[in-house]
Amino acid sequence: MESRQIYFKEPFLRLGVIGQSLVHVFRFAITLVLVVAAFIFILSKIPQLFWPGVLLAIFLGDAFVHQDAGKRELIRLPSKGRINAADYLAPSSLDAIATALRKEQVLGGDYDLWLAKSLFDFPEVIWAFERLDIEPAEVVQKINDYLAREPKAKLTREEIDKRIDTVVLQAFAKSLDEVSNYVMPADVMWALSSMSENFSKILNLFNITPTDLDEALVFGRVKQTFKKRAGGISITIGGLAGQMTGVRHRTVNRAWTSRPTPTLDLFGSDFTDIARAGQTGFLIGHEKVYERMVNVLSRGNRPNALLLGMPGVGKETIVGHLAYMITRDKVPLALFDKRLVSLDVAALTANADQPELQRRISQIFSEIRAAGNIILYIPNIHNLSRTSGEHYLSAANVVLPLIISNDFPTIGTVGPQEFREYIEKDSAFMDAFEVIRVEEISEEEAVRVLIYDTLMSEKNRRTVISLGAIKTAVSLSRKYFREKPLPSSASDLLREAWAYALDNKAKRLTSDMVIKIAEEKTNIPVRKAGKEEAAQLLNIENLIHQRLVDQNEAVAAVGRSLREYRSGLARKGGPIAAFLFVGPTGVGKTELAKILAELQFGSEDAMVRIDMSEYQDESSYGRLIGTSGENLGGMLTDPVRQKPYSLVLLDEFEKAHSDVLNLFLQIFDDGRVTDGMGRVVDFDNTIIIATSNAHSTFIKASIDEGKTMPVIADELKRKLVDYFKPELLNRFSEVVVFKSLSEKDVEDIAKLQLNSLARFLAESQGITLRFDDSAVKEVSRLGFDPAFGARPLRETISKYIKAPLSNKILAEEIRRGSELAISLENGEFKFDIIK
User: Fold this and answer.
1) Global pTM?
2) Same fold? 1-224, 531-737
């Protein structure tokens, strides 16, 4: 089969400087003569001249409207044969190429730079650089500087022709990818940026990557389209744009072989009518899903497709695109000239008893079979199987046999949770449909969708959105806002940031504003660490030691991980860090987790604490990630979904069932897990700390023998395989050994806790509390237990210090402004009121 052979040949470029100038003068002269003639003819009172003048004016008006139209449109590109790209070149693109050629021939220098400079004469290129927060004049000035420095030696005409051919052919390919009508200046700019060494250097000076420029040029192309078309084009992220206002309803196909469907029309909407009115059909991404859906609908047996995906992922957008392609006759013969009509199940069952419901269904499907040109679309098709009411059951029982009959193609949509709950268990449903999974679009595709959506929305608002703001919204939404898929999640974030910009009367929405809103919503430090935070990170070990005694190795490990995360050096695709804290009871494992939650995550409330001893049987697995059947959220996954920036504490990790421990293999490795509802939960912004008392006696014995902590840690890791699989141990960022506390350590901890009590009393009630060294030593003695470490300390302080203080406060012996000294006398705590 003969394929396309694309080449470029434009005689105008061979005319030289004088020849091209003469052509421009001649065109201008002819246009001027025609304008003057039309003006004179219309103003004359001679009937024989008036109407020719009107026709001439119409001709000139049409020429003005289509002044940037090429000789042929790309949408009508032949599928084979030799094709001259010059026929599809917009006059503005040809003008830029010709202008650059004349400048190079007269002044010398780099042709590529002359072409780049010429392209800045066109609005779509200027708009693109403005969206990058770059002043186009500054880029042009840099081009001039390069041209002034570059040697003036000219290339041979053959060399320039090859250069032009390469640029045009690359621009031609790009315009095909962008589904443009013609090869526009934006396409030429993209081609030039990808092949010109000197122009790439200039772009690098402004930190413009090829991807950035490609996406910014979309702004230019689309805005130019809006400018040329009255009202622009109708697009929205959700698929349909607005209501069916003024949409003309066409019920019969062009062959006049179909029949009207009045009952179906009453309970549904004709998507092909909506597409014909330009209110749906926009699609970015999902191309493979669309192709598969079309293939299923076109086959003779079981032509029924079930689109399965999260709400907002774009299922209805894909259906709308099919309706649009039907109106453009770009579908297989089996779908040619069909009507794509939706059926609203809720409207169908509303106010209908059993006989009425069956009558409606029977009438609708009789009309569908008689019409012979219907593709039936049932959104939220699981409603047919719901058991919440007899109407839904009756609808499913009646409708499914009709769908299985193969008399007409059917499209259904459903979410993952509803699919598992209502459809997956129903063999009749599963047999009737081909299930097609619809995943969220990529970040690059989401950026493109938001560019179109932004340009539509900007027409009614005073703030311009930069490309950086859009890319930041997409990136942050993909990372932190997983409640909705892209692009819906990014659109929500962008609109919140847009509202913030409008409230602050900002003329431009920047990426910093988007980051600010994201940080407020998640409490996650998104932007680079500022001076204050950087100083805290560099000093975090000392800050922790203000509240934690000893355990230097554990504190150092935590500090390293946090600094790597905030400096951007942490590994991608996993938690910030996953630690296994191993040591005896009461040595500070949980306390370190609490301190870390407060210092780095803002509050102890940011800590998700799970007692793993409650997950010792196999069935407890579902409690961690949730179960769809009982519609229960996960004790682990739900809190992390709601607060993606948090610390997860897994107490007594070794006591969990092996199946539960296997869950953490994926979390530690990939940083994500799918919960019982089918939602992906992201752990990329969590610190996970698992605590264990395994081999505590070995740790104590090794310390008593004088072994160093690194040696103990290495030996302990080998012994921990008694409790954990090697692959699980290897996925921890670090196994941290906590040593037993000495009596001196417990005394230091007692001092910390008593000082904390004194601060609390001073802040809450204005009472000053002082402790004598003897009192501190006695508290530490009473609160120390070799088996439980410092854990009894809090109970000791409560019994011997807080209880007497409570009595004195209630008896009003001490009040705001009082000062109290606590000491030890004759083995008893003594409370002296100084004032």
Assistant:
1) 0.74
2) no
